[in-house]
Amino acid sequence: MIEVAVDIQGADNPPSELISGVFDALNDNKDLFVYVCGDKAAIEQAVSGKAYDKKRLAVIDAPQTILNTDNPVDAVNGKKDSSLVSAVELCRAGKAKALVTCGATGAIFVAAMLMLKKIADCPALLCEPRKIDGTPFCIVDCGANVDCRAEKLVSFAKLGCAYMKAIGTEKPKVVLLNNGAEDKKGSALTKKANELLRASSVDFIGNLEGTQILTGEGDVVVCEGFSGNILLKTMEGVALGVLKEIDTAMNKLGIDSDGYKKLHDKLYKKYNYTELDGAVLLGFSAPIIKGHGAATAETVYHIIKSAYILARNDISEKIRQEI
Amino acid sequence: MIEVAVDIQGADNPPSELISGVFDALNDNKDLFVYVCGDKAAIEQAVSGKAYDKKRLAVIDAPQTILNTDNPVDAVNGKKDSSLVSAVELCRAGKAKALVTCGATGAIFVAAMLMLKKIADCPALLCEPRKIDGTPFCIVDCGANVDCRAEKLVSFAKLGCAYMKAIGTEKPKVVLLNNGAEDKKGSALTKKANELLRASSVDFIGNLEGTQILTGEGDVVVCEGFSGNILLKTMEGVALGVLKEIDTAMNKLGIDSDGYKKLHDKLYKKYNYTELDGAVLLGFSAPIIKGHGAATAETVYHIIKSAYILARNDISEKIRQEI
């Protein structure tokens, strides 16, 4: 069994709405076991009468909720019966191999730092978009580490390689996000990082400019957290913006074929990173997949699936091998 | 007359190919006067028999070319008869009010620094994309100033406001590119810049995330040059990538209406910043519009038009007013 702990509280939508994502994930993966952490009475009411394998779901009673407005340290220390702390505790104790949450980012970091073992120098936030041709790649760091030293970018590269190996890319290639393709170009940080990556154990193939982000070579895009956040959010904003622009124009042109509608929906899902995909916090003894606060049941389904794949392919062992 | 100096050499394409962009610009704007700087014999051969107002074009003989491979300082000091140095000299002497070039970026900067008067603390590179709804806005700095202090971002904001006023936006609003919308979020640099912008004379309305770049409020997007370069190139790469993806799918679907083709071509031009639009170097006594090395006659036409508008609306005076 692959055990995943799910914090079902702390998102905008109520557990009763999010829970159907858990059923879908259970029905999809026959060796998935889910611990659902939250208010037991509410969860049991939501699950009653639903079709799922009861042997593969356990409810952990954790009625408290950590809010976005809570002080993260106080909340993690004070709300021991919160859904988040209970889910992290299952990972700490080795009962769950991955954690899924749509709760407050600050509290998630604090809980991981206080309760889990660090297995990398610098835990980082990773996202996995798709290129134009559908190939997955990852961007790391996406916003957890702002203002960091060049050495950390090598650590990010290793976490990214471990991640790509866990999702099936045997020999991941690493690129460095930069304002120029040449090795000597860049900010003080990226020039230094380029040197360190060249000297490191990862398969570093050079710098990558923004123009190449969806078409260029490379499985792991390495960047400092500020740039990574700008990169990822701009990708989403521009892709969805252009899609909307085309959609409006196509409506005016009277082109409303079923084929086009399906294409639009497919691309909307592909580039809507915030709505469906989670960000992965890597570098602790268990991977933590964080969904957006406005997560739906579909988001929960997607991020449990990611957690399941990472746990099944032992991401933590792969990180240890890289480092 | 609005006099613009055009460096017709130093791009990948030969002057004979680029020159027709000059004719188109002359025919478009009846009070435009162009100094074409380059090899006189070659230019005269290219212009002979073409339809344009001969009273509004002067050829300045400057047979030398500054190459991308030249050392910028040596080239500017040594090649006094180069098309670039001649064009900058026309601006220095007050004969031309703006400069257009598709030459080597390093040499352009050096020539401006050595030959022109600085009218802003920190000259910066500005680009002018369009939002989804077609509204123009500007991003400043786009790559000239990497690793800069927060104070410089206020200077960029002022240059951006002067630019927007010159192209017709009466009361430009300023936003700061950041990894979060809240004032307190960001890197050390953006947190400090946010404070300084709040205390400055510009109309600063807050931080902007990448998701909002094509749809959000704000006429001037302020950022440090590394982030600005990542932002602009990512916008282009993602927009053109998504367009190509849709185009391929539409071909497969057999949707090849004229309306869709026109839409595709329109959007391709809108988002292909590198091919058609220039970057504007602001902060010297004359604005310098730099086209891509792979510029075509259409690029030259576009960037002469930008230069003409900035000169006609006295961008330099607007910069002095802001600062």
Q: What does it look like?
A:
2 copies of one chain form a homodimer. Chain A is built from 12 helices and 11 strands. The first copy, chain A, has an 11-stranded mixed beta sheet, with helices on both faces. Chain A has helices at residues 15-28, 40-47, 72-78, 83-92, 105-115, 150-166, 188-198, 225-253, 258-271, 273-276, 297-312, 315-322; strands at 2-7, 32-38, 57-61, 98-101, 124-127, 138-140, 173-177, 203-208, 220-222, 279-282, 288-290. By secondary structure, chain A is an alpha/beta fold. In chain A, helix 3 (72-78) packs across helix 5, helix 4 runs parallel beside helix 5 and helix 6 crosses helix 12 (315-322). In chain A, 46% of the residues lie in helices and 15% in strands. The longest helix of chain A is centred in the last third of the chain and has 29 residues, at 225-253. The mean pLDDT of chain A is 94. Chain A is globular and about 60 Å long. At the A-B interface, helix 8 and helix 9 of A face helix 8 and helix 9 of B.
Strand and helix layout:
Two copies of one chain form a homodimer.
Chain A: E1 2-7, H1 15-28, E2 32-38, H2 40-47, E3 57-61, H3 72-78, H4 83-92, E4 98-101, H5 105-115, E5 124-127, E6 138-140, H6 150-166, E7 173-177, H7 188-198, E8 203-208, E9 220-222, H8 225-253, H9 258-271, H10 273-276, E10 279-282, E11 288-290, H11 297-312, H12 315-322
Parallel strand pairs in A: 1-2, 1-4, 2-3, 4-11, 6-9, 7-8, 7-9
Antiparallel strand pairs in A: 5-6, 5-10, 10-11
Helix pairs in contact in A: 1-2, 1-11, 3-5, 4-5, 6-7, 6-12, 8-9
